[in-house]
């Protein structure tokens, strides 16, 4: 069985460009077909608009006939066009979609299951030289962490991170007799931090991930841990868990100019 994984497509970023949302739909679907995937997982950050994100997922499913599974990333929670929806309402919107993994593990077969959560950053990846107040400000050297303006769960980031970790634990319990593929948006292993010391990422690492999932890797039979968010492509094995970051990322970060090549390079295929 072939399970394809990708994240951080950011399909709505290219306005005055030859690449647009239709290009993404076509090329992502082509790659899903080319790889003969049985399942396709998107680990968040499809777009800055939840309706657009959901439309994209549904259309890929229609164009390929392949089951898509999804968890939202921080950008999918962004409230660019509709100020009436709170972040929790957007969470509930995603939760209702048939492709969603939120609070609903996907049972592949007797042996394997998939558990998913956005997870949330809890500042534990930041350099210790910053105080909680420094990090909670979400502003550094004239720049801002943009979630500050577009996401509002009405509680602190640490409380969001705790809550998502609790939900994940409940889902892991539901499938504890199986081998597990864990899907999050933010990173759950500190090895995904931007190496320190770094001029600005000593600070911005705060928003890259969480250490709240560390204990889950010894408690449950997690074989694969997929995350996105950090916009570089990097895989490693630690204590028998394969950690995968399959970010497509922004075009300015690509090594080539070719979307087909970049999707091919970013996509990771798990064979079980
Ligand atoms: Fe992200």
Automatic annotation (TrEMBL):
<protein>
    <submittedName>
        <fullName>Phosphoesterase</fullName>
    </submittedName>
</protein>
<dbReference type="InterPro" id="IPR029052">
    <property type="entry name" value="Metallo-depent_PP-like"/>
</dbReference>
<dbReference type="InterPro" id="IPR022302">
    <property type="entry name" value="Phosphoesterase_putative"/>
</dbReference>
<dbReference type="Pfam" id="PF00149">
    <property type="entry name" value="Metallophos"/>
</dbReference>
<dbReference type="InterPro" id="IPR052963">
    <property type="entry name" value="Pantetheine_PDE"/>
</dbReference>
<feature type="domain" description="Calcineurin-like phosphoesterase">
    <location>
        <begin position="1"/>
        <end position="231"/>
    </location>
</feature>
<dbReference type="InterPro" id="IPR004843">
    <property type="entry name" value="Calcineurin-like_PHP"/>
</dbReference>
<dbReference type="GO" id="GO:0016787">
    <property type="term" value="F:hydrolase activity"/>
</dbReference>
